[in-house]
Protein: Heme ABC exporter ATP-binding protein CcmA
Amino acid sequence: MPLASMLPSAAPPSLILQRVGQSRGGRQLFEGVDVALHPGQLLWVQGANGSGKTSLLRVICGLTTPRVGRVHVGQALLYIGHRPGLKDVLSVIEQLRSSAALAGRPCTEGDALAALAPVGLDDAAGLRLAQLSEGQRRRVALAQLWLPRVPPLWVLDEPLAALDMAMADRLAQRLDRHADEGGSAVFTSHQALPLRRAVRTLSLGTL
Ligand SMILES: Nc1ncnc2c1ncn2[C@@H]1O[C@H](COP(=O)(O)OP(=O)(O)OP(=O)(O)O)[C@@H](O)[C@H]1O
Structure:
């Protein structure tokens, strides 16, 4: 039986947003955002270009302070941003190990190679990032989701960007399994992910 279905319904939320509002460049982006996300739940943040999806994710991760409202993160969090800070001079395996170390979860070479296999890059481990396509670079960033001891709350900005359909399917399967195991995730996307599990949605409108 999946772990999530055995969790008590009273399990504390992994994320709480209370009346959160944010402005950027003097423009109000969103206000009154209320969310209680529990272990085993996936939240898809939707909205037009410029509606504030990335801004909301950055608030959740503590990278920016909201104009109003309260954010409570109840679990360790992994953030993979829209532009995930990849270094052209690093090899694929160096980049993955460096991302993990920066997030405070150093991994062995074996762990990194094992995480590169599901994203189809195990044969490319020695290539420099500068030699990769946009979709392959996104795969390097997403390989963190297959490392051991991955945090329980994932915050993923446009994880589908530049991915082919096969990799989009694999990412959806990984998200489904994560939720089955009691993890939770917040993600933005302009397209639906081919998820097996039900997904909650939050739409940011234009103010
Ligand atoms: N550093 C900044 N200074 C001023 N304005 C900013 C800054 N960062 C973002 N903005 C503005 O905030 C608004 C929301 O941006 P954000 O990136 O959150 O939108 P988004 O919904 O993620 O868009 P997209 O779908 O295009 O990725 C945009 O109008 C953008 O111009």
